[in-house]
C-alpha cells in the first residue's frame, strides 16, 4: 500500500515491453517489490530474480527503514514470507542494534514464523550440515527468544511441523527462551521432548477420521459429514479454514443449520476484520462455490451471499469519495496480467486488479469502469455485488485483446471531454503502445490536464517491476502497490498530503507490542 510523488527528473529506463519508463527511488522500488512479491515465478521475472533484487535494494536503503517496512508489510499487508526476508537481510547492517530484536517481536505473529525465519537465515547464509544455524545474530536470537513467550501450547502444536527441516525443538535449543512462568516452562519442556498435545484442528480431526475403517462408503460419508458439523459448531474452526473448505463442506452434505452457522461467521464484520484475509482469498472461495452450484444450489447461494457481504465489509473503510467525486477505474487485462501470483495458485494478477477495482467500485457513487488491452472498453457494472462483478469481467477476457495500451484510457477521456477527479489504473505498469503511433500515457495525461487541471492519476502497481510509465513533474500522479484492501487506506492520506513512505518511517522500533 503506497503512494509517493515521483521525483522531478526521474531516470528514464526501458520496461519489460521495450517501452520508455521511469525508475523509482530505492525506497519506493523496494516497497513495490516487497508488497507484490510471492517469491515465485511471474510473467517477466523469476522468483529467484525477485528475491535477489529485493536483497540488492535492501543494501541501498537505510536498515531502520527496512525494519519498519518489515513490520508494515506483516502487520498491514498481512504478508508472511517477505517480512522475514527483510529481517534476516537487514541483520548484517545492524550489528549489535537492539532495533532488530524489537522488529522481530513485531513481525513474528505465528509460531511457525520462528522456524521460517531460521530456515531463511540458513538459506541466505548458505549454511549446511550439523552447524547450519551456528553464529546466529545475537539480536535475531534475542528477538526469537522473546517470540517464544507469545504463544500457548495449542499454537505451538498447530505449527510444529515434523516434516520441516528446522523444527520448533531446534529453535528452542538454539535461542534458549526464558519462560515467563512455570506453565510456560512446562510447554517448553514439551517442545523439547516432542510431547505437545495434538491440536484440535480440521486437518488433525479429518486425518484421524481417515485412519478409521467403515463398513461401507455411505457410513464413511455420514462420518465425514458429522465431523465437519462437529468442527463448525465447536467454534474452533478458524475463519481461513472455513473459507478454504466451503466446497468440501458442501460435498459432505452438511445440514442447513451448519451452512447457516458458516455463512453467519463468514459475513460477521468483526470476524472479517479479525481474519485479515487478502481480498483474492474470497474470490478463490467464490469460484469454488460456483463450481458446485448445480449440485446444491440453495446452500451454495447462501454461502455466496455471505462471501459478498464479507468483501463488502473489507471495502467499508475506503474513504475519500462522496457523491460528487467523479472516478474512472481501468483494469489492465493484458497477457502479462494473466499470470498466477504463485506456482500453487490459480489467482492471477488480472484477478487481483479486477478484485481491487470492484472493491473501489462498491464505494463510489459516480464512477465509470472498464478494461484495456489492445483497445479500451467501458463496461458498466452494478455497485453492490463485488465478486459477481469480478467474475463478469473475467468472462469478458479477450474482448479488448492482450496488449497494454493504457494510454487509450486517457485518450478516450480527452475525446469525450469527460472531466474526472480521479483516474485509477490497475496494472503491472509495463505499458506500451502496440499501434506505434507515438502516443504514451505520459503524453496523454499531460494533454488531459489541460481540460481537467484538478484531476489525479493513480497507478496501482500489482507486480513491482521497479518502474512506472509516467514521470510526474507535479503532485497529480500517485503510485500505489500491493494486493490487499489496505491499499485504499492511503487514498484518504493522499487528500491530506501525506506520504506512505513517511508513514512507514513513523513506525516505532521502540515498542514490540
TrEMBL record:
| A Pfam family of this chain | vWA_Ro60
- InterPro entries in the record: TROVE2, TROVE_dom, TROVE_dom_sf, vWA_Ro60, vWFA_dom_sf
SUPFAM superfamilies registered for this protein in UniProt: TROVE domain-like, vWA-like
Q: Which GO terms describe its molecular function?
A: metal ion binding; RNA binding
* Keyword Phosphoprotein on entry: no
Which keywords has UniProt assigned to this entry? Cytoplasm, Metal-binding, Ribonucleoprotein, RNA-binding
Span of domain TROVE:
13-323
Its Gene Ontology cellular component terms are: cytoplasm; ribonucleoprotein complex
Q: Which Gene3D superfamilies match?
A: von Willebrand factor, type A domain
Q: What is its main location?
A: cytoplasm
Its localization reads:
Cytoplasm
Q: Which family does it belong to?
A: Belongs to the Ro 60 kDa family.
Query: Could you tell me what this protein is called?
Result: TROVE domain-containing protein
